[in-house]
Inverse folding.
């Protein structure tokens, strides 16, 4: 794509190191969470010193390396204008799963995504308390073939989605990632059409990671999310061979970052092109 910077392997390593460092800033505060103080944002969600510390690390270094690419972050003022459709921008969630952070269960993440004409084409997700990091990239901004990887205590491994389709007539058990802190009646209704379901409660963007590595088959979200919550995981699932779309099968786009709220979506390992992911729509 003319005029867009290619992301090479050195850039990926920079982003991996960056997310690791943001995670370290979070963990320094997580270790002292017994005395943690948190504020409430306008939407009622919590904000901690860990959110702020991670945000400082991410924004300072992204801006220094790519000064020409604007940044959308949950913890910064949204500088995009209504109707603006940037060719490139970073979507950053310095601490996704602040409620899990406060609970102390470790299921929180650092999310960094590069959005290209509304499509997240590179995503890095770090889970510092769990010792996990994922990245995936594809598309015209990448100087390499589509790839998704996971790093744990044993090192790096390539990952891919399970490939199991959303077939209500199948007897095979469907493994479903569900939000630990945000259950919804719409999800319970959607799950009724499948013969056998194994639900797994997980916090933050780790649900996308489980889809990308094939540990679960689908992550349906019938509740509010914002661009910074989903863009990195969306890119990761796509790079691993999966799909993230609205329930009617239409594209989940991030073209206008001034409007941060997402529609409902379903992330899964496989579907037929053009077919709705939810047969009620």
């Amino acid at each position: 794509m003319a005029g867009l910077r290619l992301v090479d392997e050195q850039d990926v390593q920079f982003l991996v190191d960056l997310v690791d460092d943001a995670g370290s800033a979070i963990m320094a505060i997580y270790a002292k969470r017994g005395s943690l103080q948190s504020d409430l944002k306008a939407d009622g969600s919590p904000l901690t010193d860990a959110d702020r510390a991670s945000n400082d690390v991410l924004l300072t270094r992204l801006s220094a390396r790519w000064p020409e690419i604007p940044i959308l972050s949950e913890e910064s003022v949204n500088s995009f204008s209504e109707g603006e459709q940037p060719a490139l921008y970073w979507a950053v969630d310095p601490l996704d799963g602040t409620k899990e952070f406060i609970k102390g269960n470790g299921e929180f993440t650092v999310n960094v995504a590069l959005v290209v004409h509304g499509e997240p084409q590179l995503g890095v997700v770090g889970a510092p308390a769990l010792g996990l990091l994922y990245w995936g990239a594809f598309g015209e901004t990448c100087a390499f073939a589509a790839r998704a990887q996971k790093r744990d205590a044993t090192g790096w491994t390539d990952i891919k989605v399970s490939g199991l389709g959303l077939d209500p007539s199948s007897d095979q058990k469907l493994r479903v990632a569900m939000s630990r802190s945000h259950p919804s009646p719409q999800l319970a209704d959607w799950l009724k059409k499948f013969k056998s379901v194994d639900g797994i409660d997980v916090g933050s963007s780790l649900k996308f990671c489980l889809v990308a590595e094939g540990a679960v088959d689908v992550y349906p979200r019938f509740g509010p999310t914002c661009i910074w919550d989903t863009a990195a995981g969306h890119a990761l699932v796509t790079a691993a061979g999966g799909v993230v779309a609205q329930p009617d099968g239409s594209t989940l786009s991030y073209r206008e970052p001034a409007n941060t709220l997402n529609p409902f979506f379903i992330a899964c390992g496989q579907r037929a092109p053009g077919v709705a992911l939810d047969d009620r729509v």
